[in-house]
Write a structure and sequence with these properties.
The chain is 30% helix and 29% strand. The chain is α+β, with helices and mostly antiparallel strands. The chain folds into 2 domains: 165 residues, Ribosomal Protein S5, domain 2 (2-Layer Sandwich), CATH 3.30.230; 118 residues, Alpha-Beta Plaits (2-Layer Sandwich), CATH 3.30.70.890. Strands 1, 2, 3, 4, 5, 6, 11 and 12 form an 8-stranded mixed beta sheet that branches. A 4-stranded antiparallel beta sheet has the order 8-9-7-10, sandwiched between helices. Strand 3, helix 1 and strand 4 form a beta-alpha-beta unit. Helix 1 packs parallel to helix 2.
Length: 304
């Protein structure tokens, strides 16, 4: 599956972005006997995210930089980037190493798929670095063993995610709009949120993306995030974040992404989103707050 592991056949370096994943809605539709929850979620990605650079090396190593890199273990077995690299090496019997540099721009344990997006980006980047001929389906099979969000983060475009994360179907992109992401810098444990959830399971409704902004917002308003109530129990500061977004009359819809604690607001245009992000940042200087847009296509793998 690879032409050679020798350095002369490897790319000099590979760069790729790992965009933030946003659950525009998330329904918990059931639970398997082994404990995994079944989900239905409309997932999109933003222009904001982490970034990975990988280079040839004799051994496998990880360096973590960026504003949210402090405190992350770059050498431990719990790091999803290293787990992804080891899983790819094992699947294709790769002996080459790699030096991986992760620029961590997204808050940790924040419901925007940071670790899963990084793992997905690592699988794509290392496949290019090691000159692997590997299908998207095979990468997804490797990814689902790492985390439920990894397959959809490999897809990295608007999608309906269902099952335990293994089913990813392309969806039409939202209409052009502005988006504000806000996080109070308090990590939220996904297992704790699921453990705090006591509501009945939801029915799966399916989804078709409206092309008109007002119709899009109206359709989203009829959906929800089933993890919102347990998340705000685990992390009460989420209520403050939601209130900060809802204080803006230009904000068309607010919601929690994933299991929290990042909340997002949707705006008719980027100018309104930029203004809201500036206001929230000024009022809450210790929070992470960015204005961005949804992306329609996955980030390219940049070689050389």
């Amino acid at each position: 599956m690879t032409s050679s592991d020798s350095p002369e056949h490897l790319a000099a370096s590979v760069r790729i972005d790992a965009p933030a994943k946003i659950n525009l809605f998330l329904h918990v539709t059931g639970r398997r006997d082994e404990g995994y929850h079944l989900l239905e979620s409309f997932v999109v990605f933003t222009e904001i995210g982490d970034r990975l650079v990988v280079e040839p090396a004799d051994t496998l190593s990880l360096v973590i930089q960026g504003p949210f890199g402090a405190g992350l273990d770059s050498g431990g077995g719990d790091n999803l980037v290293l787990q992804a690299a080891e899983a790819l090496r094992a699947a294709f019997h790769i002996t080459a190493g790699a030096r991986i540099v992760l620029e961590k721009n997204l808050p940790v344990s924040s419901g925007v798929g940071g670790g899963s997006a990084d793992a997905a980006a690592a699988l794509r980047a290392l496949s290019a670095l090691w000159n692997l001929e590997v299908s998207a389906q095979r990468l997804a099979e490797i990814g689902i063993a790492l985390g439920a969000d990894v397959p959809v983060c490999l897809f990295a475009r608007p999608a309906m995610m269902s099952g335990v994360g293994e089913a990813v179907d392309r969806a039409a992109a939202p209409p052009g709009c502005g988006v504000v992401l806000v996080n109070a810098r308090e990590g939220v444990s996904t297992p704790a949120v699921f453990a705090a959830r006591s509501a009945a399971f939801s029915d799966a409704h399916g989804w078709k993306t409206p092309h008109n902004f007002d119709e899009f917002v109206q359709a989203l308003s009829g959906q929800r995030n089933d993890l919102f109530e347990p998340a705000r129990m685990v992390s009460p500061v989420i209520d403050r974040v939601m209130s900060a977004l809802q204080a803006d009359g230009q904000c068309a819809l607010t919601r929690l992404s994933g299991s929290g604690g990042t909340c997002f607001g949707i705006y008719r245009d980027t100018s309104s989103a930029d203004t809201a992000a500036q206001r929230i940042s000024q009022e809450n200087p210790d929070w992470w707050c960015v204005s961005t847009v949804f992306r329609d296509t996955p980030p390219p793998v940049q070689i050389g």
